[in-house]
Amino acid sequence: MAVLLKEKTVMKMENGEARCINAEEHLRGKVVALYFSAHWCPPCRNFTPVLKDFYEEVGQDSFEVVFVSFDHSANDLKEYMLEAHGDWCFIPFGNPAIKELSQMYGVQGIPMLVIIKASGDAVTKNARSDVMGQASKSPAQLLAEWKTACAN
Asked: Where exactly are the transmembrane stretches of this chain (predicted)?
């Protein structure tokens, strides 16, 4: 579980409504990806369905995405989650953790997918390219590589 998310408010959609979850419990033992994205961003809207397919293929028992939204309103975030996202976690709109995580991982543009270790250290800040290049490695192979890197 990513230490840096332990004390953060993390939500998950359930029947179209956001609910708080225990991040420490939910993320324990999983490869965690921070997904910096926004509804207003065309490249994000192109990548999100690809990430959703990847997420569904590898299964949420061993992989979890935490959406870090750059949307302009809580309504935009919710609409984007319901319209295009997988059944993954998110940081609520306006939460100070969004700025903190963005600065910590040097987000200069979106979409950006960062795989993090339990310590919070980045395994890769370019996981989007890995997921987009699935022709060379299967989702299972990528997940196995990330899992190994997270353990080191």
From this structure: none
* Contact by Cβ (8 Å): 93, 27: no
Report the amino acid identity of residue 127: A
Question: ∠ at Cα 147 (103, 85), nearest 5°?
Answer: 60
Lookup result for tokens 């339990």? 118
Question: pLDDT digits over 52-84, tens only?
Answer: 999 999 988 899 999 999 999 999 998 998 888
In the chain, the number of structural domains is 1
Contacts of 83 (CB under 8 A, 6+ apart): 39
Q: Is residue 151 part of a domain?
A: no
The reply to whether the predicted model has a pTM over 0.85 is yes
Domain that holds residue 56: 3-143
